[in-house]
Design goal:
The complex is a heterodimer. Chain A is mainly α. Chain A is built from 22 helices and 3 strands. The chains are: A mainly alpha, B alpha+beta. The interface between A and B is large, with 51 and 43 residues.
Chain lengths: ~475, ~150
């Protein structure tokens, strides 16, 4: 078995499955290949534009750490808090993911120094490289560690979101971990298996209107060097991409393909959803459930009127925090997975549709993605928009030392969103629910079995979640 | 053939009914509370990251007085939707009086940086029915019905 055949199991293609993929690709409907547009092509082909953006984000990242470590302890006066948790976190959920999938990963600076060491050069691979280049342990593959990382951040979220020092140390930790893992393991092990933000963006990238795909798999089959796979920092083989959750949009496959056989497609939203999968992987299901469970918990803590809950979440190490932690973990590890599994099981029993429960759960988890993405967007609107004025303020005085570099340090203007924000939140939650029912419908059509009875418990699960979010956000 | 046509008609009719229900949910006015407006006074203790009580319920038209008592550091109170604000120094009480003439659920929040969790120090003012929540919930129910109809064969 060669290295290519040993590629990560989620992208393995059997001989039998390559033919349907090829025939589907050749008839891809409603796609616009951005790489064929003359003015976009050089921007994607050259490594320079991406490098320049990543250099800027790296500089911003280092500056953010410095502001967090040495700036004001008052969160609203510190660049680190406002830029990470108001500006960047909001942009990620409102712009990067819904419109570009993992587009943030393509400019994220966290993996950059490690990648430089790994490839022995800044722009491209050189002969002298650093690192052990070990393969990532098979047992640790999938998104289990990313889900765990997200839960860990959730447990400490009240402190991380409000304490500039902690935010800075979290960034330093991510930075250090990315470098160490790059020196020990091959390719982007940190991004693929550890980074909680990567897990978040990856899972919701399936809803986004961007994809990198092979144009004609016959050409790839005849190309023995497989330069796309050899050069992919993520260790992916483009022919085998079934969805966009793993692809970091780095464009290296496109640059290294001598046959010009890679497309960067604009596609309809949610094109990856509603496909019946043969896989019974539960890691993505768990990640999707952690995401919606966390959206519920964060809405209760940060937007709800319960001061006791806020104090408990903030008092790290206290008995109250331990209780909060237990509740948070119980919600994410027991209540959400348990009720979703129960819904799928009820659908199976009621419809008489016989398939492995594990596989059915994995398959139906696609329904959770639009629901979760829109719940996160609605939650973000509730606390980020009223605080956008802080962005102007910290740009002028990033360390909170009394500077007024741009004359906007004392800006008090804030967009009055109290009128339309609740209406927008309701609309977003309804769009998420409608989209999820649409995915359930597509899945049911594919399965072609007692679809109504099979799907109803899952749609009910979605409805209960949406009602809970509505109550928390606008109740 | 006849079955097919009648099935199609049934499908069209149920979508028309659903659209009608959506229209009703969106635009049907909520029943107005017939209660006589009264004066209501709430004494709110503001301590770090918490208002107590944190949920105030009044009827539309009530004349509401909020006495804000800051127990530790300076705290503020701004009511979304009403654009009203007051600030209380430690140990002091600030008063805010207004007529609750807007119906719905409104968040009130601290306006003076009082510690790490200050941005999330939030309370809730409920004035009569929360029409938005009811309409949203009913629309969510209709979305589920629409989804279920689509999958039903």
């Amino acid at each position: 078995m060669n290295r290519l055949q040993e590629a990560a199991w989620e992208e393995r293609v059997s001989q039998g499955s390559s033919e349907p993929i090829r025939s589907r690709r050749l008839t891809l409907p409603e796609r616009i290949d951005l790489y064929r547009i003359p003015w976009i092509r050089p921007l994607l082909q050259s490594r320079w534009p991406q490098f320049l953006i990543r250099s800027l984000t790296l500089a911003g990242f280092v500056f953010t750490i410095a502001a967090g470590l040495f700036g004001s302890r008052v969160g609203s006066h510190n660049f680190a808090i406002i830029f990470v948790w108001i500006a960047w976190w909001t942009a990620l959920k409102l712009v990067f993911i819904p419109l570009g999938g993992r587009s943030w990963c393509s400019v994220c600076p966290i993996a950059l120094p490690g990648e430089w060491l790994q490839q022995g050069g800044i722009l491209e691979k050189r002969h002298r490289r650093f690192g052990l280049n070990l393969r990532w342990p098979k047992r640790l593959r999938g998104s289990w560690l990313q889900s765990s990382g997200f839960l860990l951040i959730g447990l400490f979220s009240a402190l991380t979101l409000t304490n500039a020092r902690v935010t800075a140390w979290v960034l330093v930790g991510l930075f250090g971990m990315a470098i160490v893992l790059s020196l020990v393991f091959e390719r982007r092990a940190f991004c693929s298996y550890i980074c909680p933000i990567g897990g978040f963006t990856g899972i919701y990238a399936k809803t986004a209107p961007v994809e990198v795909r092979v144009i004609d798999t016959k050409i790839c089959a005849a190309h023995s060097e497989k330069t796309c796979y050899q050069n992919c920092p993520w260790g992916l083989y483009p022919v085998a991409l079934r969805d966009s959750s793993q692809c970091g949009l780095c464009m290296e496959c496109l640059r290294s393909c001598p046959k010009d056989n890679i497309a960067v497609n604009l596609r309809p939203f949610g094109s990856d959803l509603g496909q019946a999968r043969q896989s019974s992987r539960l890691d993505e299901t768990f990640l999707a459930l952690v995401m919606i469970g966390s959206a519920l918990a964060f809405s209760a803590v940060f937007v709800g009127p319960w001061g006791i809950l806020k104090s408990a979440a903030f008092a790290i190490g206290s008995p109250a925090w331990a209780l909060y932690g237990l509740g948070f973990l119980a919600l994410n590890l027991v209540v959400m997975p348990g009720s979703f599994a129960l819904a799928v099981w009820m659908g199976q029993r009621w419809s008489g549709y016989k398939t492995q429960l594990r596989r059915a759960i994995a398959n139906q988890s696609q329904v959770l993605l639009p629901l979760g993405l829109f719940a996160w967007i609605a939650f973000t609107i509730s606390f980020a928009l009223p605080k956008l004025n802080y962005v102007l303020s910290v740009v002028s005085d990033p360390f909170g030392w009394g500077w007024n570099l741009l004359g906007t340090a004392n800006t008090t203007w804030s967009p009055d969103v109290s009128g339309f924000s609740p209406i927008l939140q309701v609309a977003l939650l309804l769009i998420g629910l409608l989209w999820s029912t649409s995915v359930a419908w597509r899945l049911a059509k594919v399965n072609n079995q007692s679809v109504f009875r099979q799907t109803l418990p899952i749609l009910t699960f979605c409805l209960v979640f949406s009602l809970a979010m509505l109550w928390l956000l606008v109740g | 053939m006849i079955n097919e046509i009648s099935g199609r008609r049934f499908t069209v009719w149920r979508w028309v009914v659903l659209a009608g229900m959506v229209f009703l949910v969106l635009f049907l006015p909520f029943p107005v509370n017939a209660t006589t407006p009264v004066d209501r006074t709430f004494r709110i203790q503001a301590s770090r990251f918490e208002y107590s009580p944190s949920v105030l319920s009044v009827h539309p038209g009530d004349r509401v007085t909020i006495e804000l008592l800051a127990t530790d550091v300076v705290h503020g109170l701004y009511i979304d939707g009403y654009d009203l604000e007051t600030t209380a120094d430690p140990g002091q009480t600030a008063r805010l009086t207004f007529v609750a003439d807007r119906q719905g659920s409104f968040r009130f929040r601290c306006t003076v940086t009082c510690g790490n969790m200050h941005p999330f120090m939030i309370g809730k003012l409920q004035v009569g029915h929360n029409a938005l929540l009811w309409r949203g919930s009913l629309l969510a129910g209709l979305a589920l019905i629409a989804g279920a109809w689509r999958v039903r064969k």
